[in-house]
Design goal:
inorganic pyrophosphatase (n-terminal core); 12 helices
Length: 317
């Protein structure tokens, strides 16, 4: 660990230009981890890293600290090149998007911080820990190991990343996330205030999510809840539909939840959740991946075909 951190310090010190990105369509962990790392570099090395993103950032993240520091890739010069590129919470290479992957491939050195399983690592230097509940914890481990300077923005961003990626602590599977959260609270993170920052969704998004829940199918004697969002409604979604997954998961008897999102014609986003039984292998069978009980994929096929394939995939579960 310390050898990796020494290399990280050396690469940041020697870099003339630094960029940071997460996966396409940022969630709370990816955005907040990237912004926290940006501020850590600024505070400890006196250098300004550029946070670049591709895709959509949900409106409920509009109020997180330093949100305006994240730059949409179309506002970056096409010929931009970075000595050092840092990836956070990207999962797998295909989650980067073409533009970010181009920047990464053209950079001189790549560092990654992640908590997803990945058998095709992008980084030359990898800080990866699948046991962590959020990528922010991987970054926080480095901060604690060498006592990097922090400020309120960093503390709040790390805490927000944990809050969002654990589903406000609903998906915690080990005690270390509570230990890290306790240290962040002791350092000044106000969980009530930070949670309230996230209550910022558009009405149209809530109505689309409510419609998907109300029209969900219940299969396998009620153990599988399957919801769909067509393309017209997907344009109003502004996020990944976590509210749909959460609400369906509250229903007595439901063990598995699937949300199909028609992102474009013949492009379907699949989100899968499970109360206990691992379902990551189902996501992997569709070319995706993720955590044991929270995974997903994107499939080039019609909504009806993907629906049928998902139902078949759950047979025998």
């Amino acid at each position: 660990m310390m050898e990796k951190i020494r290399t990280f310090i050396e690469k940041v010190q020697n870099a003339k230009s630094i960029a940071i990105s997460g996966h396409k369509n940022l969630d709370g962990d990816a955005l907040c981890s990237a912004l926290a790392l940006m501020k850590i570099i600024e505070l400890n090395f006196g250098k300004k890293a550029t946070v670049i993103y591709d895709g959509n950032v949900p409106r409920d993240l509009d109020n997180v600290p330093l949100r305006n520091e994240a730059i949409f890739h179309k506002n970056i010069p096409e010929n931009a090149k970075y000595d050092l590129y840092i990836l956070v919470d990207y999962g797998t290479r295909k989650n980067l998007g073409e533009i970010i992957e181009k920047y990464v491939n053209e950079s001189d050195f790549v560092i990654e911080f992640d908590h997803h399983f990945n058998n095709d690592l992008v980084g030359n230097l990898c800080f990866d820990d699948e046991e962590k509940a959020a990528t922010a914890q991987v970054i926080y481990d480095m901060v604690k190991a060498v006592n990097f300077k922090t400020d309120q923005d960093i503390i709040d961003l790390l805490m927000l990343a944990i809050i969002t990626d654990t589903g406000r602590f609903k998906f915690v599977r080990s005690s270390d996330v509570f230990k890290d959260s306790a240290k962040l609270v002791a350092a000044g993170a106000d969980i009530i205030h930070l949670t309230n920052l996230l209550n910022n969704k558009d009405k149209k998004t809530i109505l689309v999510e409510a419609k998907a829940v109300s029209q969900a199918e219940f299969l396998m004697k009620g153990r599988l809840a399957l919801a769909t969002i067509n393309h017209d409604d997907y344009k109003k979604l502004d996020g990944r539909g976590e509210t749909v997954l959460s609400l369906l998961g509250k229903i007595h008897g439901v063990q598995y939840i699937v949300l199909l999102k028609e992102q474009k014609e013949n492009r379907i986003g699949i989100s899968i959740r499970s109360r206990q039984t691992p379902i990551n292998q189902i996501a992997e069978s569709f070319g995706g991946g993720g955590h044991l009980c929270a995974a997903g994929a994107v499939v080039e096929d019609s909504l009806e075909n993907v629906r049928g394939k998902i139902i078949n995939a759950f047979k025998g579960m």
